[in-house]
Amino acid sequence: MPVEKIKAAVGKIQQRIEDSKDEGSNPPWVKQVAMLTGVLAAVSGFLAVRATTLTNDAIYESNRAILAQTESSDAWNEYQADSIKAHVVETAIAASPSLSAAKREEMEAEAKTFRDRQPDLKKTGTDKAAKRDEHLHNGRKRLDEKDVLGYAEVAAQVGIALASVAALVRMRMAFYFGVALGVGSILITAYAFATHYNIAP
Q1: What DSSP string runs through 87-116?
Q2: Residue 201 gets which letter from DSSP?
Q3: How many other CB atoms are there within 10 angstroms of residue 185's CB atom?
């Protein structure tokens, strides 16, 4: 049963093609097919280039996030090491009441040096962690935009296919669907750019 329906549909399409050849003239809307496919091909090409750019940007942001994470970890490791060293020196001072005044002063200065370095190390660790989060967020935004533009590219490609089929079988409805998909592709692209530049509502 389904095979017979398919054969009947193919027969109708072939009859339309033959009828259009016999008539020797094209409906006025067929002249717009070339323009539509050209515009959608340009849009599709732009979207492919943009997708590649966004992928490269996401990779760059990921690399920067890894670097920031490494620098944050290094700062926190140094912070903890200085804390341990200062604690060891302070414990040694407390456990040695017979230390000479000069030696005690020297050890207290050493412990103070370790403690004084800690605020800067803590700030560096916190700042680098914030940078890591910022780079990760930016990378996710690039990938989200790439996903949205992927839908726009699919719409453009299907629009091209429908316009080509419409011209072949002289089916105006398919042409209108192709136009609608082309408009949808452009609107999705505009939305993605508005989101990228923070001008979307």
Answers
A1: HHHHHHHHT-TT--HHHHHHHHHHHHHHHH
A2: -
A3: 26
Alpha carbons 48 and 159: distance in angstroms, whole number: 16
| Residues 6+ positions from 126 with CB-CB distance below 8 Å | 72
Query: Are 79 and 178 in contact, with CB atoms under 8 Å apart?
Result: no
Angle between helices 172-196 and 31-94 (to 10 degrees): 30
DSSP 26-49: --GGGHHHHHHHHHHHHHHHHHHH
- Own/partner contacts of 188-197, CB < 8 Å, gap of 24 or more, are 188/148, 188/149, 188/151, 188/152, 188/155, 189/43, 189/46, 189/47, 189/149, 189/152, 191/148, 192/145, 192/148, 192/149, 192/152, 195/145, 195/148, 196/141, 196/145
Answer whether 125's CB lies under 8 Å from 78's CB: no
Predicted structure pTM score: 0.72
- How high is the mean pLDDT in each 10-residue block of the chain (201 residues)? 63 60 63 88 93 94 96 95 90 84 86 91 94 95 93 94 85 89 93 78 50
Q: What is the CA radius of gyration of the chain?
A: 34
